[in-house]
Design goal:
Layout (H helix, E strand, L loop, with lengths): L13 H32 L2 H37 L3 H36 L4 H16 L1 H15 L5 H24 L4 H24 L16 H35 L1 H37 L3 H28 L1 H6 L5 H15 L3 H15 L4 H25 L3 H5 L1 H28 L1
Length: 448
Amino acid sequence: MSKVEINMLEGSIGDKVLKFAIPLALTSIMQQLFNAADVAIVGQFVGREALAAVGANGIVINLMLNLMVGLSIGSNVVCANFFGAKNYLRLNRAVHTSLLVAFICGIGLAIIGVNFGRDILVLIDTPAEILDLAELYLQILMAGVPLLLLYNFGSAILRSKGDTRRPLYAMVVSGCVNVALNLFFVLELDMSVEGVAIATVVATFVSSMLILYWLYTETGPIQLRFCKLGIDGNVLKYIAKIGLPAGLQGMVFSVSNIIIQIAINNLGSEYIAASAIALNYEFAAFFILSAFSQAATTFVGQNFGAKNLVRCRQIMRWCVGMNFVVTSIICLSMSFFAQPLSAMFTSDAEIIEYAVLRIRYILTFEALNVLIETFSGGMRGVGYSLYPAAVCFLGVCVFRVIYIYTIFAAEPAFEVLMRVYPVSWAVTVFLVVGAYFYVFKKLERLMN
């Protein structure tokens, strides 16, 4: 076993979960820094409208990508299952199927984003004064989506054997490229949102090429050979069985967030800009808790493949406990320092005020989301991906829509709107935890 791999099937658990989760969290945070660098540079050096234009795209891009991100989770679980079962022939087929699917889907999304980006932005009530800038930013970013999906799927394959360090190394390199190009395009060439978007695409190209290089130079069952690229129907069905519900779960959150974004858009550009700032910290918090959730998915996936359900339960206890403690400490710290953290992106006092309000309403209660994501991750690891998707649809999407069209409609204030996040999480926690215990008790009966 190489130094970058983790033996998930034997020995201690807590230290290995940390070894897996910390690089993964740092990788995701570094990826988010692409957008954070865009937001900070346009906020400080271009202006309010450009800042709002970048911010208005975040929810749209997440919606368009979440289904594919879910499929990459399916790829991770399938590869982990085959790895745990030592079925290396099917593991290699899963690698080549995943990468080809990533590229094909990326091309499809790029075509949709470039040709229909403006229609989508109009659909979510993007203010007219920022529509042209928002469209330009979205079109350039979506053109680079095939590269982003190659990185995500390739990283998922590496994670299936416990390697979360090389995706981090790739993201560090590309992050440095992104920041340097951002500054060059905006300060030296006097470009606006198109400059920061081009910088992000170039940086994504760097990270995806590094991942493909490492897969190509592998010597084990996840080795990439371009002549083997093809789609294995049975493997694809297995990936889709797990990945599509996971993607739909992510889309449920995105759909509800788009409805919230429409409400924010109707409040005014200062609220859009404030949300763009706060989202950087919300995403960072989510990436931390998601890293432990993905650890649960991968560790449980390998051990379920090895038919060791007892160890699966032990893994879940470690992941939930560690995730709750780490996420709570970090989120409460960011909430406490919300004022200086917001001021890093703009000097506009009104925007800072609203950004602070959003950060404190959401990050103070982010630990509730730990339970939702980690228990969902555990269920995906054992192949039950539809259950968490269904309960999240009810607890998040349906509840938030009802809240916005009743409570918020009666009192359309930004603070009232922000309350929907912690309340909907509290409702969803009970549904997800109940589904988790039902699934694992069902598996115990089937395997005994």
